[in-house]
């Protein structure tokens, strides 16, 4: 078990649901590069990230605009789930992620979504 997988196992209410999840460290590095290419204001308010900013972030992170779009979309999903979890003490993370997943047939959360959420806390 890698260091991030161990950390996920320690989060209350998440450990059992994420036990079998494989964490791709390269994907996390790509996400980190995208986040670090954003200004502090863009990190606080991702709704500011429009066309020219997305292109700048993509160039600065060595990725493409589609990857930036995907990260911003994932953040919006995770933000929505975290707000819903804050409403109830017995919120089930897996059920909330499935409910808010864009692709209902796929696994509801990725390690990248959790990394994004952790980066903004």
Which assembly state applies to the chains in this document?
A: single chain
Uncertain segments are 102-109
Major sheet attributes: none
Provide the β-strand percentage band. under 5%
User: Helix share of residues?
Assistant: 55-70%
* Rg result: 15 Å
Kindly name the structural category: mainly alpha
What is the tally of helical segments?
A: 7
The sequence of SSEs as H and E is: HHHHHHH
What's the overall geometry?
globular
**Average pLDDT:** 76
Number of strands: 0
Ends apart, CA distance between termini: 24 Å
Characterize the structure shown.
α2 runs parallel beside α7 (111-119), α4 (51-61) crosses α5 (65-85) and α5 crosses α6 (93-100). The protein has helices at 3-10, 25-36, 40-44, 51-61, 65-85, 93-100, 111-119. The protein is an all-alpha fold and 121 residues long. It starts with a helix and ends with a helix. Helices cover 61% and strands 0% of the residues. The radius of gyration is 15 Å and the shape is globular.
């Amino acid at each position: 078990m890698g260091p991030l997988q161990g950390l996920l196992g320690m989060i209350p209410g998440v450990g059992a649901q994420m036990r079998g999840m494989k964490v791709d460290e390269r994907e996390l590095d790509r996400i980190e590069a995208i986040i670090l290419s954003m200004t502090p204001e863009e990190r606080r308010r991702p709704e500011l990230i429009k066309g020219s900013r997305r292109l700048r972030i993509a160039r600065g992170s060595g990725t493409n605009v589609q990857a930036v779009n995907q990260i911003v979309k994932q953040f919006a999903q995770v933000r929505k789930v975290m707000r819903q979890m804050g409403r109830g003490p017995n919120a089930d993370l897996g059920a909330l992620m499935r409910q808010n997943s864009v692709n209902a047939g796929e696994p509801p959360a990725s390690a990248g979504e959790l990394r994004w959420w952790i980066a903004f806390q």
